[in-house]
Structures are given as structure tokens and as C-alpha cells.
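Below is one such record:
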Amino acid sequence: MKLFFRFLTLVAVLAMNLVDVAPAWALTSRIKDIASLQAGRDNQLIGYGLIVGLQGTGDGFRASPFTEQSMRAMLQNLGISTQGGQSNAKNTAAVMVTANLPPFASPGSRIDVTVSSLGDATSLRGGTLVMTSLSGADGQIYAVAQGAAIVTGFQAQGQAATVTEGVTTAGRVPGGAIIERELPSRFKDSVNLVLQLRNPDFSTAIRIADIVNGYASARFGGPVAEAKDSQEVVIQKPRTADLTRLMADIENLIVETDTPAKVVINERTGTIVIGSDVRVSPVAVSYGTLTVQVTETPQIIQPEPFSRGRTAVQPQTDIAAEQTGGRVAIIDGPDLRTLVAGLNNIGVKPDGIIAILQGIKSAGALQAELVLQ
């Protein structure tokens, strides 16, 4: 009975203070933190290259013949004859090289690249990526990569045991690519700005448009923004405005954000994330677990001395069943703090809380979207 009074008292106290607590949850953010410029998106680059200098952890030419073909082609381009026998040295690995070309990148600037093994190499640690061209979706070469690969994982192997930590067949080359070609589009050639919300929401999009129009009315004498949908806000360029300075002013405007109420559950890791807007209607919850423990303790029976008996094994099994929990609690979540306190006071572990939240959703008492991962 004490549990009932504790829950009812906690709910009553927080319900009276709900008016004072709710405004503190109103989140404000800069526009640059919740939206991105459509013309300022990244572009993906890809290439095929070779990593050399490995200590016997590279590709085997028999299992990965494309590595040997690539190495011979590279040596021929350098003017070295490759006629003769095959090489068995496993100090070369074929890799895929990927990178993201940032928006408005200029020729001569550097970007990071990621290398990933294609063959049967066991580790790229200590290797060097040789000159590799990186192409975009249009087939044009935008960057050239080269440099030492950094691999965070390691592998140690003996005759009877192997220890591996992390991934040794993938790594990064920090600043390993030099941009050689400029993107065809120019920022100042645009006639408008299109903002894309990272978390689409109609309320947030309308608030962004209103904040921008308030700024534009005071600065340029009229509104310039319009919310197209839950994700896009289009801003027309005023005649007397500089597009770069306009974007710099708009991205620092403060907007009150809004998101749908969600509960995200990852059953594999037992992770539970509850949004601040999640509400739970009054509901009674009872949770109990049944634990069954089976213990095998076989006994060895020896025959008497000078007898012709045989040693025998007598099985012995002990089964113990224990049921815990079973208490009934009333959960009423007018705010996030009350909901979390109610779930914690039941005294269950994360897997039990997951089951309770799923049951509350099935009962129709959880006023939020339940996302299972």
C-alpha cells in the first residue's frame, strides 16, 4: 500500500507544478543547427586503389587476382617491366576509397578519405595508399588521394590463439585527398535559398518562416520566406541583399523547435530513449518475473576395494523456481519526470521497462509513437 501512496503523492505534486515546469522544456535552437541549405549538401566520391607497405597482411594473389593485375598495371605505368614470375609477397592490398566532397569546396583544399579492403587482407595497419583518383556520380574526377592509412584496430596471432580488437581491414587517411575540380554550381548564382529541416515538422517549418519574415520585414520591408511542407522552407532573395550575408544573418536566428512525441527502444542493447513530450494516461501496471534455475551435480560412485564393480556416475538434478515482482502500481505521466519516476519506482530492469512500455502502448495509454529498433 505504501507504493500506491508514494505514486499518488508524486503525481499530485508534479501535476500542481506542471505549469511552472513545462516552459523550461521549450527548446530553442539556431536555424543552422536544425536545418541545412539545399545547395550546400555533400557529394560522395569513390575510387579504387592500392595500399602498399603491409607486413605480410595484404592480399593473396591467388585468392585476389585483381590485386596482382592492378599492381602490374601500376608498375607498367611507371615504366617498370613486369615480365617474369609471380610474386608471393603479401604486402599489397586492393581497397575501395570513399570520401565526401563538402559544399563550396575549392581546388587545393584537402579532405579525409576512408579505405576499405576488397580482398583477403587481414590488416591495413602500417600501409600507404598510392595515388588514387576519386570520381563523382557524373564520372568526373574531383580529387586525388594518397597518404598513410591509420587503422585503430589491431590483431595478434599465435599458433593456438588469435586476439583481434576493432576492425583492421578499414581505416582513414586524414587530409589524404586534394580537391582538383570545383563543383559546377555556384552559391551566388542562386535566386533563392532552400532550407531543409533535419527533423521534418510542420510546426517548426512554420516557425522558421515566421522568424525569417519578421527579420526580413524589419530589414528589407517585406516577407521573403514560405514553408512549402514539413521539410522545406523557401526564402526569396531580396533585390538589395547579398546572398552570402543574407544566409549568415538567417542561420543565426533563434527558433523554438518542436518534435513529435516518441519513445525509441533498442531491444538488443536495452536502450530506452523517451522524448520530453511523451505523456501516459493513468494506467495500472503489474510486473513479475519467473526465474527457473537448473543445477546439475553428478556424483561419482566408486566400487568397494577388491570387488569387480565398475565406477559409475549417478546424475543429480536440482530445480529451483523463484517468482519476483508482482506488485501493482499506478502510473500517470503528465510529464516526463513523473513517467520516469514511476517506472523506476516499480523496481524493474530495462528489459522489464521495455515490456511495460509495449504493454502501455497496446492498452492505448501511451500518447506517443513507439519506435522499435
Notes: The CA atoms of residues 43 and 331 lie 49 Å apart. Confidence is low (pLDDT under 50) at residues 1-25. The chain has three domains: 2-24+262-372, 43-179, 186-256.
